[in-house]
Amino acid sequence: MKTIEKFFLALGAILASSTAANAADVSIRTPYNPATGIWIQQVGDLYPSASTFETVYYTRYSEQLSAKAVDYYYDGNGYLKLYNRRLLCRTRGADGIIHHPDGDLVVAGQNNNEIYKVSKSAKDTLTNQCVTKTVSSQVGSSTFHLMMNPDNTVLWSAGIPGNLVSFATDSTGKMDRIRQVKVYGDVNNITTIVWDKSQQAYYTRSDNMGEGSYAQFGKIVDTTCAINAKPCPANQITGLKTKTLISGLNGAHGASFDDYSETILLFGGTHIVQIDPSNPSKIAADVDLNKYLFTPSNENHWVGYNRWLLDQGTADHKGHIFVASNSGHLIFVDFTSNPNKLIDNNILIHVQWIDNYLDDVAPMAGAGSNRQSANTEGGNVVSSNSHSSSASVYKESSSSKVKSSSSTGTSRSSSSRSSSSKSSSSSVKGGSSGSDNSSSSIGEGGNSSSGKTGSSSSVGEGGDKSSSSNGGDGGKSSNSGTGTGEDPSSSSKGGSGSEEEPQNSSSSNGGNGSEWVPPWSKDSTYSGFDDDGSEDKGGSDAYPTNDKRDKGDTLVTNGSILVPSSSQSSDTNHVVINGETYKNDSTQKSIPLPTYGADSSYATGRERVNVGDVIQITLDANKIKDYFSDSDSLFISGTEGLLFVDPKHPSSPNANISVGVGDEDVTIWVTADTTVSVGSIYFTDKDGHLIIFDGINFYDPIPAAEIGYIQDSDDDGFLDSIEVILADTIPKGMTATGLAILIDGDTLPVHNALSVSKNRIFASADGLQIKSDNFPEDAKVIITYTSEQTGANYRRKGNLLELGSHVINQAYAIRNLHGRDSLFIEFNVDIIPADLKNPEMVTWLNGQGFDLDEVNVYLPTKNTIILVGDSLKLNGKTDYVTLAPGAVFENLSFIASAEYDRQVPVKVVDRFPAMKTVEYYDTDGNGELDSIAVRFSTKVTAEELENYYFSFPWYSSRGLLINLQAQPKSLILSADGKSAGWRVTSNQNVASNLTSVSAELPPATLYTYYTIFGNSFVSSQTIPVTDKMAPVISAATLHYGESARRDTLTVSFSEAVDYESLVGKDFFAYIHSKDTIDLNPTMMLWAADGKSVQLILRESTDGIVPGDSLMIIAGKKSNISDVYGNASVKNASPVVIGGLLGKIVESVNMGFFDPEQYVTNTLNSVSISYVSNQTRTSDLRNEGTLGHLISLGERFVPQLIDGAKTDADGNYDAAVLDSIDPADVFVNFSVSYFDNLGQYVTDTTFNIPCNSAAFGTDQNCLTTDKKVFVNWNYKDHTGRLVGSGVYVVEFKLVVRYKQKKIQEEMRDKWGVRRKKSK
């Protein structure tokens, strides 16, 4: 699992007798220990549930890393049986494990940055046989935990914590890397991802301990996507944003979603934590193994890393949890009895050691599993006796013959109580027999034995291990052999009891009835797994016990270091290893290693050899037969770093090989590509037998080349002297025998003699003809060391740099006549901050040092420094820099004396002109920023302008602050070069009706780019924005008063107007139809803030209607301007006047008539007439007529057509008018008259088609020069003339055009007078 070393935890058999109580006041008993490595705890009541059986797939993180499996059966009522542990595949690394959609397993490769696709049905457990595909994560981070996306299409891998990588998967076997996914937000790396039922993703973040302040649980709150899609498909996700929900959460390491409880389960440290997604910031329930079982630190029986260390777990979606602890224990929790489906009460905990270096378990249900839930009921079941369980139990049959038994079946059974004897016995596998007084059980390959009343025995595989148990008087005892068969068990002794109250015993402690014993245990047999490394079926599992090491010392008869051969690589019978040639026949020479073939009991191991050396090891043929029986091949692997070669079938060194065995001794070769300290070699056969040969030591005493220098010592233009600085002195027994230079892929050997002094090597490069010009920066020096003992060669490589003109490469300065100067110095060696602790001791300018109180030093790149001061006294002609006397650099161990005197000329340029002002303009007066002018301190050339980039702050139409970016190509330089203009362009709409600059607006920024040493350096200048925008009309609304003279036009502005400086009232004009008419109101009432004004209109302007346009014009004596004097531009954009259509219909509300002169028989009560467009209500009033005067014609078009058809000037496209068929336009009038008491007088309705001939020659109401007059002829509905008095009139006008409707209603009081003619 981890990068730290872990050790096997062997839990002791003796437990502390004290009990504990958890925070929920739940009674905690001392856990029951029925067999070695098994502890059982029950909290609260337990109720029967469905039995389940399945396979748990898991990994080992060290000592023969591998994927393995173990089967289980749970009867649903407290009894759990684990059996048939087996090896599936050996992998180069092993941590996380998950099921591929095609049914294979996927195993994480730890620090190998790989994941492996593993076949469950491979014929061999060798890596090259069972690993069907290897995919690299391609990131410099380890690969530990694996998670499958809910749709099974994307596999995720993560470190602990570390980088997150996605892989594409499908049911056809696909497994391809997609990308590294960025993690950002509250945390930038994670350990595990888990999804709830709604597919909301959560995460854990912790190291392998899974607890403490570092452990966090959080939520994925956003994603970045490679495509434009919401939600983003999993295979397109490029980033995940994190939000921490719980910090310092003990248990936040592994994670699994449980569909049974619809909760998230977290695993880590000593905790199993339950989280409800509906309230994910709170812990729903928690199981602490230190409370529910015991605290490891309080026990004396833990070996090595003494603590629980939960890693990854899984739920079977049936109310059961399986969790792997790095201590080697599998933790099982049954919480089906809890009514709230929580793990805080009414639970069973079964803990059992199953394997050394246990790491992770694969999901048992949901995504990443090979099924939806654990199997329940039915099938072949391995179980104990039935005890209030609903599960079927397979029972073996027995014969009545004494001392013999037989049985067959497809499943294995523990105790079945099938004996006919009064005393009870148990069987492991095979059959059971009974008589009045004895019984026997047989393990695989074992022999049966008989015993007297109350006793039984069993023999393990090969008969070399056995156990027995004796029952007390009349009591019952169980017996299980500790052999290496498929169901290894522990021994037990029964305590005293009676026939009515049988006593069950466990481990090495006899029970006397005082400790808690599960009620089902009297009918159950528990068997712990052996810790000797044996497997139930196939493969091997190394547990380093001393007997296996002792056998390893006798298996290896001798070892020696191979001496490289002088044979050419083209010769037959040779192998090239680490660049050296070795003969794979009897002529190969070697140097003996005395401790190989002897006991390696001392801690430092065997003789040390150099990394890259090859050790030849011989295995005794007779010992192979003794230890591995009739095996015809051995599988060889070892500690990480060890590599193996079979000289009979040579190939490149491999981490594991298989060699054939027979009657002759076996020879293998061992090498290493890294240091190995007291390493081990593992020899296993197909049946799982294991022998260990340890004490292997490879070390690396050969000093690396820290740096090499080459220089032209005689100034002839050719580099002729080499000096190499080593990391250490050359050890005894090793000689520097060769030197070469690697330039542009060519290796140039140095043929001159080498001189060594302490940790430096000197050589002449004469004859190589390497020119000093353009010496490559990536040149290397290669040193060859030769072992005096074996003649083996070892090579080390380092960087080779040119000395002489090397330290300072070039210098450049930007001179500012009115500000700070900048001096750039580029070095040919990387500079680190430590070099600048005393900046005055780095470089000098013009033979003088710098005053650090006046000069600042910066390190913008790894090999460039910048010195900035108010005046560096640059003359611009003869400036130069040198190294300061005594200057030293961390990355340069040696500097030639002449280098301190070398003068490097400084190229000096003047700084580009700076900004003087930035001015914002609204040139067309529409209330939007459209132009920006920048004025410079001095003249700017077109070439200089190419290096200017501007950022201007302003506001978008949504009110958000944005930066407008002006590129050099879009700037317009003035003729004198002292200013530049920019027509504002943006991919966002800028704010409208905004012509003022607030104090909160950030300053404008000028970025000036200088190309120096092939890199771009940028300086920035900020300056406040100057407002050059004049006020504009933002809105105009017409309000009708009771009299035309009281009509008011309210005008709003984009900013405050300096109205106190205005003289006169001639600042506005309005556009009516095609006419522009000056507006001279009777009064102007300004708001105190100057942002609006009310214009009291004259009667002569009663023709203004909504839809006309208002504009600002220049006054005769003053102009509309803001407080900064920005006057409105000429021909500023007009604004459409808003308001109700009150002037479309006007009423004549006072009339008179002479009854004697009035013609009564020719007129209806109400009539329509068509009058001149020049007719006004005053004209009709003078005539004494009553009625409504309606204006249609062209001025009515803006009201009839959508406002979008009309521009700001009130103009519209004539083509639009032409496109309107007057036959589609209808005008409807309805009018009702009532007397002052509300009594009905008369009413009428008119429908007039727009194409009526009454509208003139065009027969079009939209282009007519007529007005319509709806005249009341002073008659009631009977045709009689009405009397003098006040009448109430209700009038309604409706104009329809297709789906468009304009409607106006009026209610008025009219006066009628009768008068007699004289």
TrEMBL record:
Residues 1-23 form the signal peptide. It comes from the Bacteria. The keyword Phosphoprotein does not apply. Residues 367-574 are annotated as: Disordered. Residues 369-378, 555-574 have a biased composition (Polar residues). This is SbsA Ig-like domain-containing protein. Keywords: Signal. It comes from Hallerella porci. SUPFAM superfamilies: Soluble quinoprotein glucose dehydrogenase. Residues 381-442, 449-493 have a biased composition (Low complexity).
